[in-house]
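Inverse folding, one chain.
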């Protein structure tokens, strides 16, 4: 454990150095150091000399301060693969002679999609950390919201920018109820909804309505709409899972993201039963080999179907796969609970 902390600290130091380098480059280009240049540096790192995937990875290091391990988890690839990608991105910039000056108006528009993806991934890492002792990294989710507000102030009429900000606010609003007194995760159905930040929910809903009214539906708006269904429900039992399932189906067709398919499996199980969810999960398993979320969801659905032994095995497998200790403890407790309940059953 001590060794892992030292490694994480070293990676954090390297990430900090990357941020300082990027800021220094910007100051050299503009002669400015007395204002917050985070947004400019963000757009600078999403340079056209790079592929979108490489630009996102490099920006997560330089601006988001994420470690290579965390970025690899966000992209669902091995850490070694991500390390090579980041290294190649830096080499590509050096070889191209690309300038890190502020982007022109046309370049800014071209880089916007990568910028939004970066902000989304930074927020996700803050909402559910890929590694470490704690589930939440509030400083990351707060910084992602701050930067997204800045982008929204620059582009208030862009529906996807507005949708992303709405998604972050609607999701982050649940944070006060996500951990118990021992900082252990509380699943969404068990959360005390009175503890949710209802002012933040109201702001998010207003932004979502504005984004949808623009008539150009994108993935962040759909994700925000799903969050809105959860936030509007007065209780877990009152959640409109049919609507959530329909939104996930549309989002899956739009993005092809296998994590969306995993979430669709959960929604399908709530509408049609656990067997339907397990069938969907089986179709996505090969694409997400080694991802603990798949096994965690599988454990939940098997438990709902009454297959205690298989559920315990899935929960234990998920616990072994995750590198976040809070999630690991939670999944281990889930396995122990199912074992205990099955033994006490008549």
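Residues assigned per position:
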């Amino acid at each position: 454990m001590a060794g892992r902390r030292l490694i994480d600290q070293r990676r954090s130091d390297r990430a900090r150095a990357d941020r300082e380098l990027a800021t220094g480059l910007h100051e050299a280009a503009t002669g400015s150091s007395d204002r917050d240049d985070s947004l400019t540096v963000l757009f600078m790192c999403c340079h056209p000399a790079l592929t979108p995937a490489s630009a996102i990875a490099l920006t997560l290091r330089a601006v988001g301060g994420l470690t290579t391990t965390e970025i690899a988890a966000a992209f669902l690839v091995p850490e070694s693969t991500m390390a090579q990608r980041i290294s190649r991105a830096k080499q590509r910039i050096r070889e191209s002679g690309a300038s890190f000056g502020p982007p022109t108006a046309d370049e800014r528009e071209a880089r916007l999609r990568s910028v939004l993806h970066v902000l989304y991934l930074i927020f996700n890492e803050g909402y559910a950390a890929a590694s470490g002792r704690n589930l939440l990294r509030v400083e990351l989710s707060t910084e992602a919201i701050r930067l997204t507000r800045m982008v929204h102030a620059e582009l208030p009429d862009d529906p996807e920018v507005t949708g992303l900000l709405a998604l972050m606010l609607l999701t982050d609003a649940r944070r006060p109820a996500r951990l118990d007194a021992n900082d252990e995760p509380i699943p969404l159905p068990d959360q005390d909804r009175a503890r949710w930040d209802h002012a933040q929910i109201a702001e998010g809903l207003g932004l979502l309505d504005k984004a949808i009214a623009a008539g150009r539906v994108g993935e962040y708006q759909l994700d925000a709409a799903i969050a809105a269904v959860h936030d509007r429900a007065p209780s877990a039992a009152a959640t409109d899972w049919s609507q959530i399932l329909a939104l996930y189906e549309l989002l899956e067709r739009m993005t092809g993201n296998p994590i969306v398919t995993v979430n669709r499996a959960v929604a399908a199980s709530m509408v049609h039963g656990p067997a339907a969810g397990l069938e969907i999960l089986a179709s996505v398993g090969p694409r997400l080999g080694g991802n603990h979320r798949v096994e965690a969801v599988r454990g939940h659905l098997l438990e709902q179907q009454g297959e205690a032994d298989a559920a315990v095995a899935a929960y234990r497998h998920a616990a072994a796969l995750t590198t976040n200790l809070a999630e690991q403890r939670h999944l281990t407790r889930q396995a122990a609970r199912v074992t205990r309940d099955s033994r006490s059953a008549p």
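The mean pLDDT is 85. The longest helix spans residues 2-30.
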